[in-house]
Amino acid sequence: MRPPEAFLDTGVLTDLADSGRAAAVSLDRLSSVAFVVTTVLNAAELLHRAASDGEKAAAHGVLTGVHVLGFHQRYASVIAEALDANPPGGLRAAMLAGFCISNRVPLVTDDVNHYRGIPHLTVVDIADLSSDPDALARALQLRY
User: Fold this and answer.
1) What does the pLDDT read at residue 93?
2) Could you give the domains of the chain?
3) 97-101, 119-123, 134-138: least confident range
4) Does 142 score more than 70 pLDDT?
5) What is the 3-state secondary structure (H, E, C) of the chain?
6) Residue 25: partners with Cβ closer than 8 Å, 6 or more residues away
7) How confident is the model at residue 22 (pLDDT cuts 50, 70, 90)?
8) Residues 114 and 88 sit within 8 Å (Cβ to Cβ)
């Protein structure tokens, strides 16, 4: 049985790809308690931020461990409702929130402020997670 899903925002993906900074939680650790997903928008942002060949290789390495999903038309009304909340992150935040709300997936981010005020969205700050898989599972409200 596949574990519950957790959505990774671009900042978390960048931390995972950037060998110069210690990621708060490893992709292996996240994957041990969740089916890790992101959107094509986040994947494109990650690849766009990669300047050197080494950074691009690291970004592709992260993306091989994450399931990259697209946007479905059924998300449109949920995205519009998220936009009504006028989130600090604007349309981008509303789109990602709509994806997460529609799929009942918690959003793991390094910038919770971008999603402030969006109803029905579960946001998890990556900084609050420890390397303990039980703590991660509790934070994401996941069950094995």
Assistant:
1) 97
2) 5-139 (3.40.50.1010)
3) 134-138
4) no
5) CCCCEEEECHHHHHHHHCCCCCCCCCHHHHHHHCEEEEEHHHHHHHHHHCCCHHHHHHHHHHHHCCEEECCCHHHHHHHHHHHHCCCCCHHHHHHHHHHHHHHCCCEEECCHHHHCCCCCCCEEEHHHCCCCHHHHHHHCCCCC
6) 126, 129, 130, 131, 136
7) low
8) yes
Closest alpha carbon to 7 in 70, 72, 67: 67
Of 92, 26, 21, 14, nearest to 50 (Cα)?
14
Q: Which of 35, 33, 29 is nearest to 15 (CA)?
A: 29
- Residue 81's identity, in one-letter code, is E
What digits encode the pLDDT tens for the residues 53-77? 999 999 999 999 999 999 999 999 9
- What is the Cα–Cα distance from 102 to 14, expressed in whole angstroms? 24
Asked if residue 143 has pLDDT above 50, the reply is no
pLDDT at residue 76 in the model: 96
For the record, the structure tokens of 66 come out as 């994450």
